[in-house]
Amino acid sequence: MVKVVLECGDHRAEFEGSVDEAIKFTLKFFFEVCEKCRLASELLATKDLSFLLDLKGLVRVSKDEGVVFLGDAEKLLPLKEAILLVIGLNMLNYRLNYSKSPGVKLSEISEKLTSPQKSISARLTELHRAGLVKKAKRGVYELTTKGVFYLESKVVPKLKKARK
Fold first, then answer.
1. Contact 130, 151 (CB under 8 A)
2. What is the DSSP string of 69-114?
3. What is the pLDDT of residues 146-155, one digit of tens each?
4. In CATH, which of 1.10.287.600, 1.10.8.60, 1.10.10.10, 1.10.490.10 is domain 50-163?
5. Which residues are paired to 2 by β-bridges?
6. pLDDT in tens, 26-66
7. Cα 67–68–70 angle (5° rounding)?
């Protein structure tokens, strides 16, 4: 059991619970209260993507490929969220040493989804403007800290609900 008290300007929040819940509470506080706060970015940059492994029945772990999404993400999610999932899975695979780079090229995203590359490119631009992805270099995309939080709090619950 842990107790957390956070203050940022006029905002104050308290939480008591498990360590995992306290971390989620803290990250949510930073995004809601001081989204552009450098500390929030640093905290989330180190955030574990293992929550993607909770998608039992929707992902499998292969010793050759790493974490693989089973099925058609675009049937379960809007295209923008399917793109976030592809990028998030790649970042998780990078951290598990199954991918050589945390970033994903547009062509690699297109290989995993059924939408035309032009549509994917347009959605990536929207995701970039929303601060959910960043361009690591020309044509290579990574999740931002905000994107990781969005993936966990919005996309994964949709997938879990669709799985039932």
1. no
2. E-S-HHHHS-HHHHHHHHHHHHHHHHHTTSSS-S-EEHHHHHHHS-
3. 999 899 999 9
4. 1.10.10.10
5. 17
6. 877 776 665 445 444 444 444 677 788 778 788 888 878 88
7. 140
